[in-house]
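User: Fold this, then the next.

Assistant: Folding the first:
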Amino acid sequence: MAQTTVTTKTERRPRFVWRNTDTFWVLGAVLMIIGAFGMTQRLTQGLAPTSLGSYVPWGLWVGFYDYLVWLEVGSLLVFTSLLYLVGFKRLARIKPLALFTGFVVLMMALLVVLLDLGQAMRFWHVLIYPTFSSMISWMVWLHILYMLVLVAELALVLGFVKVLDTRKDQLLKILAYLTLPMGLGLIIVSGSVFGVVVARPLWSTSSLPLMFLVSALAAGSGLLLLLVVLFWPEKKSPDYVEVVSRLSRITAWFLLAGVFAASIIGFTALYQGGDPAKATAMQLILTGPFWWSFWIIHVLLGVFIPILLLFLRGHQPKWAGVGAFLAVITFVAVTLNVVIPVLATPELEGLATAFHHAKLNFDYVPNIMEWLTILFVFGLGSFLYGLGLRFLPILEKKN
């Protein structure tokens, strides 16, 4: 007699299967819990609990904002240029991933700069009452337009907007071409926000926007390489090694170009016959209390070791991934060294001792509240990123 198999409700219930990408949302949840206290302080007490003041109004958060903009715009500039201008078609396999990563990083950048505003709920004033002689107004408008184009690209790639395949490819190509001038403009304007400040000699240079652009391309290509190493669907295919090798060389050359651009600014600033204030700010970066953030974190871990790994071991994905990881996470030292030391240098002799108040201090060091808030922002980004990787058609299924 044939036996009948009885299927219970428990057996039919879908079972949760852990994926490697779930690490992102779990880690994000942990970081949000850790950083919740700092975020609560920011929402209830404004900027008062921070170490910011009248002399140093921009600090940790502005540095991280520029860092995230470099990653976001730089990665998509490199990706779009290689895919559509150079014709490196193999990268098309990670297009949903590249766009989604850029979108999440963009949201993190906008949240960080929103938290840095003294009156965050007045952010819309720059949209309704813009002053186009201000670089910040241009930056806000470019960021919004860039975000709209990126969202449209992402909606098409993920299938949220249904169009014919031929029409879809044409629209994606047009939108991709639009992001190129927008991304270039956004990075250049971001650098010009500092470059037009005549009162800060180390910032006031036409080469600073160029340094921002080269740095964004270096950080962005490193992020793109890291995404390929982590998420390429067929790790045993020849295409995988070729893509990793090519991106390794591109990242290494951009890192070298960044060294060249930074060296020009540094040597010019240290020139003995130049501006003393500019030289003082540069010496604060090179030999000040936080010299290690420049020489150890950025130069050694973020430039020297990655360049060696990417040039000598770039054809080996694991070593290429290590080099890309180091380059990406240490690039924040560059933006922090661009923002903080210049503001921490007195504009006038004797200004540091002329007045005494907690908010009139040049010795700025980010406090625990500022770091906790950054942890919350990164936790939120990681949480959303992990959920997107799990529930959206972003990653190509492995065969």
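Now the next one, as you asked:
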Amino acid sequence: MSQKLLAVTYIRNNKRRIAVPIISLCLCFVLTYLTGFMLSATEATFSSVYLDNAEKIQFIDLSDKALGVTTNLDPDFYEQSLEERNRVIGDLAKKLEDHDGIRQTYTAVLMGATISAIIGGVNYFIPLVEKEEVSGLLESFGTSVIEGRLPERPGEILLDRATMNNKHVQLNDYFDYDSFRDRYTIVGVLDSAWYFGCGIPAEGEINLKSIVVFSGLHDLTAELEEEQIVLGSMDAVYDYEYGKKNMKSNVTDAIGNSTKVIYGGILVILTVLLIVVCSMYLRERHNEWCLYCSIGFSRKSLYFCIMRELLFTFLTALLTGAVVIVISVLVLKGLMIDPYGLRCCYLDGVSLFRILCANVFLIGILQIPVRYALVRIRTVDAIEDDLY
């Protein structure tokens, strides 16, 4: 027959029936993307600390053995031995400044800050230095105070806005950290795209100093080896290489395995539901297709008509899902990402690729019930032949 079967005719006359699979697919696509989006908030936040921060600032925390000193724990000699240890640390810091690639070094007491992500948390260091060194430290990091003032007294610190949002603190609030005996007062907010803070050690705080390095080097181990520093199990160098290893072991591998399980579960559930819905849809239209074949339409024409209907369903679900995803991401950004000082990837290419792959896979799987339904079509002539 010259007349062509039009998918739009069935779609126009069965809007509610077509809407069910469209909504189901749309919700699954949205769920898939938002799952990746929420997990990306954890990955991007950890990456900002482990990698982005390490591109600008590194920390060297050495034991007495590596420094070749002994800290006397006797109260009568403790302060004197601690001063000697810090003197050795200061000398090493000055020597490192002569190395190519190292711009500036400081000695500082390191206070930790924990950024709570969607899953887990990540720590970074807040260097506590002398009052006279605060301005130079900020200049070396490339930031400045946008609200409040510089620290002037012991126990005062500066923080970036993201950290303050994450810890739910405001200007002039106290910032607590378990390993420090004193509470620190936030006196200024930093203009920083990175997680960063600095301040002045509180009076009576243990003055155990480490080295703060500003450089573009990814690995400081070789620089320490040049200064005859042998690293042991009690020593730590928090540089880009350290961050990359921790990023892989603590985040990339862990989240990667979780996402595979989540996406696999969503795909299995969606596949089963679609096969069930499609089978019901094909069974309901069996008599209609038998009639079409009886009046001269070929099975090939029916197949292409069915495929156009399926493609319309999937494309509509994709477009609707895209709109819902954009709205959902903006809502989550306003309710969860920005208020908690987190980082995220708004355009998740991996999730988009998985959604497209899922579409291709599902359309391929649906070929089985469609082909089976076409094989079962019987024309009026065939029925009459069976009767006689």
